[in-house]
Design goal:
two-stranded antiparallel sheet, about 290 residues, mainly alpha
Length: about 290
């Protein structure tokens, strides 16, 4: 009898016989190109940088919560990442492809992009607990990467050391548009004997008050775009923190408006109703700021 010819390939359950007609024509030594031109390559690189910023920021937030990093180092790194994130989205092409943070995470699924290999019993125990029997049991397929801390930090737009979350609430707004104080009638808060938790001196108090005035003026002159109001709100938060580390009434309203503006595009503007609410909340927050100095 003739001896059975040994197969040159691994047998399969379906007795599949490879055909030379199906031989791959791809050169495995050739680099795979994701983009057809320089513009596409730059776009993908920018999106990849944004992805890395999100992942890095989430890791930074975790390290800060575990007290694994000093506050100064955290603040500097966080501000740099937030600045890089903002600068990356300043390009209209990148911003258009990015969409929003949630849309970006949904489109790219913000997944780990590699499969991790488990060895031995760990993978088998995992699959047995799930009732799954797979010939590829030692492979963990890409799982969604949760980045809630980075998402929250990007939503706020400031490091945790710069801003404190408060839960104070204002009563419903009243009709009419409160004009706010003008520079001529504005009364700067003064304190001869600093209250507990108040520091920075008269210069810091004047600087914080000037930032409040600037925002009042911007609203009065109907300068309601994000790129106008957002930097002033940031200056207000930073300047009042230099004056006092104490929370004051309605400070949380400034935080909420900062978050609202941070989610808008640079050219977007507040509606007249939103401007009235902002002016009202700003007056209340400034009264609270003055109160904490007394």
């Amino acid at each position: 009898m003739y001896a059975q010819q040994q197969l040159a390939y691994a047998p399969t359950p379906y007795s599949y016989t490879p055909s030379s007609n199906l031989t791959a024509t791809i050169n495995l030594d050739e680099e795979v190109r994701l983009a057809d031109n320089t513009a596409e390559r730059d776009l993908y690189e920018s999106l990849a940088e944004i992805y890395s910023i999100i992942v890095t920021l989430d890791a930074l937030e975790k390290a800060y919560l575990r007290d694994s990093i000093k506050e100064i180092e955290y603040a500097e790194t966080c501000e740099r990442l937030l600045r890089q994130y903002k600068n990356s989205l300043a390009d209209e092409t990148v911003a258009s492809a990015f969409g929003s943070l949630e849309a970006f995470k949904a489109e790219w699924d913000v997944r780990t992009l590699f499969s991790w290999r488990l060895q031995g019993e760990e993978a088998e125990k995992r699959d047995e607990s799930r009732g799954v029997k797979d010939t590829n049991a030692n492979t963990i397929w890409p799982q969604q990467l949760e980045v809630p801390r980075a998402t929250e930090r990007l939503r706020i737009g400031l490091p945790a050391t710069t801003i404190e979350h408060t839960h104070s609430h204002l009563p419903p707004g009243t009709p009419g548009f409160p004009s706010g104080p003008s520079r001529a009638s504005f009364q700067y808060p003064t304190t001869s004997t600093p209250a507990p938790g108040v520091g920075g001196g008269a210069h810091a108090i004047v600087s914080a008050s000037e930032n409040f005035i600037t925002l009042f003026d911007a609203i009065r002159m109907n300068m309601l775009s994000k790129d106008t109001l957002h930097p002033i709100l940031v200056e207000i938060i930073q300047s009042v923190n230099k004056v006092t580390d104490r929370d004051f009434e309605n400070k949380g309203k400034i935080v909420q408006w900062l978050i609202t503006l941070n989610q808008m595009r640079a050219a977007e503007e507040l509606s007249p109703e939103q401007a009235r609410e902002l002016n009202f909340d700003l007056n209340a927050a400034y009264d609270g700021f003055k109160g904490v100095l007394e």
